[in-house]
Amino acid sequence: MAKNITGSCVALVTPFNLDYSIDFSALKTLVAFQIKEGTDCIIPCGTTGESTSLTLDEHRQILEVVVETTAKKIKVFAGAGSNNTLHAVSLVKQAEKAGVDGILSVAPYYNKPTQEGYKRHFMEIAAATSLPIILYNVPGRTGGNVNVDTMLELCQSIPNIISIKEASGNIQQIMSLLKNAPETVSILSGDDPLTYPMMTLGAKGVVSIAANQIPKIVKLLISLCLEKKYEEAKKIHNRYLDFFILTFIESNPIPAKYVLWKMGMINEVYRLPLLPLSNSSKKIMNTELNRLNIC
């Protein structure tokens, strides 16, 4: 079993052509950009990758292209989550065949299962693969919260679970998880604005949206925190905090894809029901981009 995940992980967007097909050329460019800028792990086909709008075959093709492009230079953990446990298992098996290093599995969304339902869901997934798993808790998107006790029980009973991406935004829950998680399991921030405070409390990295656009900055922030150079890291956190917050000015990944379009890396294309960033949000984002000289 692989060691737990630490460092800067990017929740990669999925670029589309103007006809809404996958833009594989742009995808390769994004992956090469992440490798060049020092990102530790690429996570394609997650929720930031508009996974719920992708077909099973598109999942497979994206993973194969990302794995081939990385050429083992950095880790690839595939988004392979679903609110249908059987479908999640099929995504995991497909990811395994594609040659990924592990998977990120989001808690089932919409169904709002009981805590026992969450347990059974992740047990089924873990039993279907030998790959390491990052458990992903994001109540704001799924409509339900995986409690700390449930996450800890899953960590203790399932060796596959090596990391937890915690994006509840609940500081009390985050502190409890960081305090009680076993050393064999790394806790990763799932919210860019909370990465710095979480790391001062013991988190080991981030699964970042902002790393799509500013991977070198996110990597530096994480590296300084891991070296316990918190004062230096705080300066970066404060400088980029407003940008981190603006990555959520509208539903993710809308703002991230807008900035990447401004950077000339992708088309500003989304699949419905997502739409391009509104003009009012663009004005706010453009002001921040100019302040930071991002593009």
What would you say this structure looks like, in words?
InterPro entries: Aldolase_TIM, DapA, DapA-like, Schiff_base-form_aldolases_AS. Keywords: Amino-acid biosynthesis, Cytoplasm, Diaminopimelate biosynthesis, Lyase, Lysine biosynthesis, Schiff base. GO terms for molecular function: (R,S)-4-hydroxy-2-oxoglutarate aldolase activity; 4-hydroxy-tetrahydrodipicolinate synthase activity. The active site is at residues 136, 165. Pyruvate binds at residues 48, 207. With 295 residues, this protein is α/β, with parallel strands linked by helices. The protein has a single domain (7-236), classed as Aldolase class I (TIM Barrel), CATH 3.20.20.70. Helices cover 47% and strands 13% of the residues. An eight-stranded parallel beta barrel has the order 1-2-3-4-5-6-7-8, surrounded by five helices. The chain is globular, with a radius of gyration of 18 Å.
